Amino acid sequence: MKTDWRQIVTAGDELAVDAPLTDKSSIICRTGMLMLASGTGAWRVRDTMNRIAAVLGVTIHVDLSLLSFECTCIEDGHCFNEVVSLPTTGVNTHRIWMMESFLKEIETYGRRFTVHEYHEMLKTVESSKPDYTPWQQGLAAACACGAFVFLLGGGPIEMACAFVGAGVGNFARSHILKQGLGQFGALTIGVALACVSYLLALLGLGQVIPGAMSHQEGYIGAMLFVIPGFPLITAGLDIAKLDMRSGIERLSYAVSIIVMATLVGWMVAECVGLAPDDFAPLGLSPLALTLLRVVMSFVGVFGFSVMFNSPVKMATAAGLIGAVSNTLRLTLVDGPTMLPFLGLSAGMPPEAAAFIGALVSGLLASLAEIRLTYPRIALTVPSIVIMVPGLYLYRSMYYMCTFDTVNMLGWFVRAVLIVAFLPVGLGVARTLTDPRWRHTS
Question: Is 267 exposed, middle or buried (0-12, 13-18, 19+ CB in 10 A)?
Fold first, then answer.
């Protein structure tokens, strides 16, 4: 049930630092609730609550999960325990940014504010509306998935059809979620519509472009907007900080999304006769391919950032970081082709390239955070979501459903290793650049 925080406050006109412990707890827990609802990791939620508690002169202990936390506040021999839970989870990078601005203001002027003033500031954050409408979310997904298909090796026809499919699918999903319906129902409808819309777009192009129907393999790209990048990455970061409960729950949630999406995609593909074949070679020169990868990486990351509710300038910053790190990753994998002057016999393993790409994203985000004041996680996660091997994950599930266990295991192991190295790269970058992260609190 939704909490009416006004009913909890007992001394709203008092300075918060002099207020009863119950009022201080309400401020700390509401702050943590807004951070947790924004989709950020457990360490960031706990760190924010600790810093607010320090201003109020309270010691706290917090146990976090994906949708709830228990907070014990201690002050002058008194102890107060509070449990907060959320009805669902999601991602809102703009709200994370607003909460970081709130935190900076509290650490500077927090001792001057009353309890009511704290709650009014938090109410402003909580009542903020999404930056984008469902049709804008659909357009962002269309651009991101169209770019994603190119980065996977697809051509103009696959990109155009994925643009249509992802746009329709994410518009439907966003609209359903806006009505307050369940995530898995929205996901099922969104993925099914994306695959069917891809096929309809392909049939339409087939009327004017001979041979268009041979480009069916891009339908996987039309459903990549459901990749749970934030919970996948934050799960790894939580586990790295030994927040096992939160990390395992986030990982379970991400795996559930992936399994549901791939099963729906496979079922639709079986019904309409689509198959995840390899893309035909594009025949581009190394220079042209590199330039297009830079552009498409930017477009893809920008689109995913918009889906995470990042303001345009924040999404642009994330896009620039992703353009550098993802192009570097792809170039390292295709070393002999992209860098023939080095005389390499083979490219870098995709897992190692994913680690380097994530590391570069983390380091660049650290520099951008200093200059632009954007939350680091709002820049790093969108910039590496495009590195998540959604194609591998789908193919592993597809081959499992067709009882081809050899291919299933091959694609699955590749996907797991790449996904594992992404948060490792971010964690190393964070360790090198953030003393608060580097040390145990």
Answer: middle
